[in-house]
Amino acid sequence: MNSLEVRQLAYAYPDGTQALFGVDLTIARGERVALLGPNGAGKTTLVMHLNGILTAGHGSVTVAGTPVRKDTLKEVRQRVGLVFQDPDDQLFMPTVRDDVAFGPANAGLRGAELDRVVTEALERVGMLEAADRPPHHLSFGQRRRVAVATVLAMAPEILVLDEPSSNLDPAARRELAEILRSLDVTVLMVTHDLPYALELCERSLILSGGVIAADGPTRELLADSELLARHRLELPYGFAIPAV
Ligand code: ADP
């Protein structure tokens, strides 16, 4: 079973800007895949198609066998867990617990079952102790982890993370990596942090100019300096791909 299938997805914004020109990709259940690419490549546009914020101008998106369409949006949004770059776009309740309970409660969970789901999601991101605190009292890294928990509480088929390492200090960045590695869930992460992609994702895609320009083992892609340069991707100063 594939978590995600995108076929010949093309999309132009209402002003005529063509952002995607026929994207094909398949992500199998349990894979962790990085989506790399320069600014303007179409990454955000692609992500917005995964849970139907935008709908296909041409082509199709299928999540765990369910096509993303107007009549399947409710189901698709439960299955695709989008973690925004800014956790403050995702957390708006008085306590961490309320934020994590929001989605499952909306989906009809109540009482002990709801408590169990919330506790489990917070445990998975190491934030159970903060359950009764207001999100705005937490550090940025903690808020990002709570944002991940809000999505995990919906038992998603695929977790889609937008720049998960942005604005994190090195310790928080490493803690989040450990959490992501421990999750038994399909992950697609959009990132400019190439070492993070290497650390967490065996496979990477390069989206460039609205098409998939490369799809392969992260290590191989990042070792190809010409490929990186062609798509305005750069490893940090002094970073060398470690030998296998
Ligand atoms: P990325 O996330 O990789 O930086 P985007 O998906 O944001 O790329 O953008 C892809 C292309 O679509 C760019 O040319 C961008 O200028 C254009 N674009 C993005 N949002 C809009 C919009 N709302 N209206 C028109 N063009 C847009």
TrEMBL record:
Entry's Gene Ontology cellular component terms: ATP-binding cassette (ABC) transporter complex
Biological process, per Gene Ontology: cobalt ion transport
Membrane topology classification: Peripheral membrane protein
SMART domains: AAA
Keywords noted in UniProt: ATP-binding, Cell membrane, Membrane, Nucleotide-binding, Translocase, Transport
Gene Ontology MF, one: ATP hydrolysis activity
Main location (coarse class): membrane
ABC transporter domain residues: 4-234
Keyword check for GTP-binding: no
Top-level taxonomic group: Bacteria
PROSITE patterns to which the protein is assigned, alphabetical: ABC_TRANSPORTER_1, ABC_TRANSPORTER_2
Cellular compartments annotated: Cell membrane
Family: Belongs to the ABC transporter superfamily.
Record NCBIfam families: cbiO
Its job: Probably part of an ABC transporter complex. Responsible for energy coupling to the transport system. Part of an ABC transporter complex. Responsible for energy coupling to the transport system.
The protein's name in its UniProt record: ABC transporter ATP-binding protein
